[in-house]
Design goal:
With about 575 residues, this protein is of the alpha/beta class. It has a 6-stranded parallel beta sheet with strand order 7-6-5-8-10-11, with helices on both faces. Strands 2-3-1-4-9 form a 5-stranded antiparallel beta sheet. Helix 2 runs antiparallel to helix 3, helix 5 packs across helix 19 and helix 15 runs antiparallel to helix 17.
Length: about 575
Amino acid sequence: MSLLVVGLSHRSAPVSVLERAALSADAQVKLVQDTVAAEPATEAAVLATCNRIELYADVDKFHAGVAELSTLLAQHSGVGLDELTPYLYVHYEDRAVHHLFSVACGLDSMVVGEGQILGQIKDSLAKAQELHSAGRLLNDLFQQSLRVGKRAHSETGIDRAGQSLVTFGLEQLSEQADVTAWARGKKALVIGAGSMSSLAAATLARAGVAEIVVANRTADRAERLAEILNAADDTDVLARAVPMDAVPVELTRADVAVSCTGATGLVLTAEEVAAAVEGRTGRPVAFAEAGAPAPRTHTDSADVRQTPLPPTSVGTDENCPLDVAAVQGGFSVLGEAAVAGMDAATLEQHAAWAAGSAVDRREAARRSPEADAELITALAATAATVGRIPERRKPEPVAETPRPAPVLSLLDLAMPRDIDAAVHRLAGVRLVDIESLAEASADAPMAADVDQVRRIVSDEVAAFGAALRAAHITPTVVALRAMAADVVANEIARLEGRLPGLDDKHRGEITQTVRRVVDKLLHAPTVRVKQLAAEPGGAGYADALRTLFDLDQETVASVSRAEDSTEKDRGPR
């Protein structure tokens, strides 16, 4: 079995797509259940945050696994597979481990180095354990990722490079002014009482706001958060809870509002925000002119359309010319990074292979193998002509017309969004949302500590891979020693039949001597085979050992099942 991750994030997809693909809590549960029910996967976990959706699985076939996981993500997100596919990325085996460790350290976050992701990974693992979809591989992987993330934060200064998404958002609202000076004395409204909203409330309290009003659909959670804020020793903020229907009135009193709920629709429309500002200022609020700043989205230029690569729709790996192990850094489902650096001949060879392979039944109705082959050949020709695969590019910056200072600042940290994007065009209002945060973070400087964290990740990936490969051969070694013990027992029994007059002392000495001989003969090869199996490419040593000693496959499997059962009994570490 092998680790596979298929997902999309702020690095691969525009926020408009992430927003539509966002999974509710129920959808995440159903996605995990359907993944482990699918043929290629035996374990599954979902990591869903405001800027990423990733499906992790232990699969027995690469191509079939990519096809199945991609299809399931599309089905449960509600975004069509054809539309979602250009933004999906794939990581396999060691590269999948490297990806999750990097995520845990904050290297792949919108705000590099932020530590909130550790809590989200922990929640993801807990959910998979609750659903019994995390076996030995995903349990070990996620638990180790948490340890790697904590190590990165404790041994390096990555915290200086990173900050929470809340802090980064407040910096954007203050337009790079000192957040404490900007927030001091302001009245704040926090919509939602989950982990992100609680962090926002605590951050605002420490920044010096005078009042925080918490609104939530569940009144008890809002009241509990307000009590915590009032009881804090390091702030003097006055906090109170209100029902959700009080939000329009509270918005007329607020200087800043932060929203992060699990709602599937808008919590604040542009009209409601405009009415709140009008209620505060006594003047009608107009939409800014067309040339004023508006939310910008990342779009693909017309000449950089990507071309589907067949592995996502093929259900077999047999004779595939694409060397998956040689691909560095993962690759997109459409093959952008998978084919980067490959010459036209290799691409054409892969196209020919795809044209003659079995196509997944779900894709066959949409696209023929011949069409795939033509598109791959065209991509190969493009690569040969320009020397590389076309890249997505950010649009050129648009000249922005100055706007008046805002009387209301809004921070939307929800995915999908809580606040209507049209609010960007309301005069007197400043809105910062996930989309504008993604754009701002693209230009944020990287700290020198990031390189040190990357080295930690590389070392930890190598250690995890070695441990995983060594663990793979352990059941075979245990089965070999069990077989040797049976041989010793049988031979002692035969000896007793031939020499019934042996007393207990001599029988014991003979038994111990035979066992020592067997142990000494097995010691060196079993130690060495564990060392060899821990090295890259060492997976075949277990098969060799089973073949050389004619070990029963079911015996080895029973040892693995026993170890898995013991691991489950121990519970999470």
